[in-house]
Amino acid sequence: MALKSSELSRHSRMRSARKLLLVLGDQLDPGMDALDNLDREKDAILMAEVREEAEVAPSHRQRTTLFLAAMRHFALELIDKGFRVRYVQLDSSANTQALGPELARAISTLNPECVQVVQPGDHRVEASLVKVAREKDVPLNIMEDESFTCTLDEFNAWASDGRKSLVMEYFYRERRRALNVLVEGNGKPVGGKWNFDDENRKSFKNPPDIPRPYQPRPDEITREVMALVERTWPDAWGRMDSFHWPVTRDEALRALRDFVDNRLASFGDYEDAMWAGEPVLYHSRIASCLNLKLIRPRECVDAAIAAYEDGRAAINNVEGFVRQIIGWREFIRGVYYREGADYSKRNGLRQQGDLPRFYWTGETEMNCMSHCLNEVLDNGWGHHIPRLMVLGNFAMTSGVNPAQVNEWFLAMYVDAVDWVTAPNVIGMSQHADHAVVGTKPYAGSANYINRMSNYCKGCKYNPKQRKGEDACPFNVFYWDFMIRHRKRFADNRRMQIALKNVDRLPDDERKAIRKAAQRLHAEFEIKKRASSQ
Known about the structure:
By secondary structure, the protein is mainly alpha-helical. The protein is 48% helix and 4% strand. It has three domains: 17-143, Rossmann fold (3-Layer(aba) Sandwich); 152-332, Alpha Horseshoe (Serine Threonine Protein Phosphatase 5, Tetratricopeptide repeat), CATH 1.25.40; 345-524, DNA Cyclobutane Dipyrimidine Photolyase, subunit A, domain 3 (Orthogonal Bundle), CATH 1.10.579. A five-stranded parallel sheet has the order 3-2-1-4-5, with helices on both faces. Strand 4 (114-118), helix 6 (123-136) and strand 5 (140-143) form a beta-alpha-beta unit.
């Protein structure tokens, strides 16, 4: 790139704008319609690095670095294309360190006729922008985010079509048909099934030999941001040493090609597997690229389908990836906006425990938790099974307040944006949204982790015990969770087998499990406040 970070300040010196487009840190899409509608001579773009967005939740070093580095690269690309960009850098003396006040300051300086912004991915951010525009008496146009394959109107039309509940599988099938993705001419799914999930549950018997994923080297601009983040937040969580995330569209496209060429062919087979020291395995690791809008979901789907049509990947592997992109991701977004700003406050199971400190430090004697947490501290990332069945599962079954769990996930993952984090955590992971996202809680004992990983080997805890000093905490908390919520789940058809197993427990074993759970709650400092249960 010809331009450097030093160019950002020089190009920001402007005094007027007819139209002002605010581009947020997760809207770095060079193909967005909002850019096409700008006059390069008369209109302007506002981008701002502010502390508020890294401190709403105590952001991982790499998460903050990724957003700021990608923003700077995108802004310089816009300048190189002839756009007028007002770019507020984090260490600018005039920076108010919040998006709302920065918009207000820009309006006062540029006096635009109107302000435009693509739909923010955070209710809090949208509310602050609406407030500023109203106070400044300037029209605010919130535009549809066309980077997604399903509009919010389309999702709401589907969700309102006489449905008693929202089931992602049905949404996914309809979207496959609407987008003509892996569908035969007669409307039937390619391969004879809509979902090949039952074929995608293999685990490793021996250490997997997988090509290392593409990891771009930080350039001068990114290194400047890394140093800035370290200076600004010296006590931030996480480690910076392994920062190798794509921060430009070119790097994002290369990451997509790397996945399709080297890992897609086994992605579905092993998408639920875990292995110590192998955080990526066959996963794509492109969620951050998608959520920053460096690449679009349709590009990812088309690349995967091309691999299937060329005979480079079997249908179960391709379908599993496609389902994540146009099924789950778009479903989650629809839920976020449909359920509203109070969604992240829901606590359907009325759990009030504190998140253990080891989530932030990785210091625990549970092997599975130690491996998964330290992968997040090292990389700001982990694939969906450690997130759901290890870290989320432990928090839910041990009784942690879901708001604290949501804050941790929002803070610690580089691909975290509120629209995607809240439904995945509050809904799917913690079952706290009154069964909007999932019809049953994703609660599991150590048996699942032992089957899908090698974490249990050498652990001080016994994955086959549910009481006693060496009983695995996952077993203790799973059974305690089921005992505590027995009445709550009594009418849930998907919970009947698990509840029958609870009912078979002798009274003395129930008491032993409850006692063990209380001991672990004290040991992990989970129950600092009185429970509302």
